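Researcher: Here's the sequence for the chain we discussed earlier.
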Amino acid sequence: MEFHERGICDSATPPNDQEETTDLRRGPWTRDEDLLLLNYVSAHGEGRWNSLARSAGLRRTGKSCRLRWLNYLRPDVRRGNITLEEQLLILELHSRLGNRWSKIARHLPGRTDNEIKNYWRTRVQKHARQMRCDVDSKQFEDMVRAVWMPRLAERIHEQKKPPRSLESSCSYSESVETQLSPPLQLPPPATAPESFVSDVGGGWMELEQGESMWSVEDIIWLQQQL
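Model: Thanks. This is the structure I predict for it:
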């Protein structure tokens, strides 16, 4: 009987599989591991990550290798903070795609879905909590479209202006350009819908569908944070 039970146990969990599972590395990647993965993918390309991990001599899971490559080691991965243009695009895409980070990342070359998700959680969700509302609510979506996105567009336009020290030296060329092409027309400042912001004298107003309420002070505060 003892022999029979041992036989069942052995057939259910092959010794080789047990050894591979217990021998896998966990935790942060080392420089040597990064070099192994980089060299292997450079020589053979991406493939089935489980077999790639074994072939490259890495004691890591296929998932761990895939995430390490996509989020850190790919040559086209962008470094640095999310730019204003990227922030504006993320807000626009999220309004249409929701939390589909990989689909959003396809529209931002060099950015990973992990980076975009982290930006959303550390920046957007933080503001939603400070504004005392649900980040997925219609209320917050209206605020993003009425205040946040226009403010980002304004800052992007300001960044593209030439420094004041160059304005005088460029005055002649600018005058010629204005004769050749019409000046850039900025859209009028976005205002929140009537069902969204109350008259200043009223202070507070109820939003549609029983949602919580915004004050003018809330809107001004958010504008100052962006």
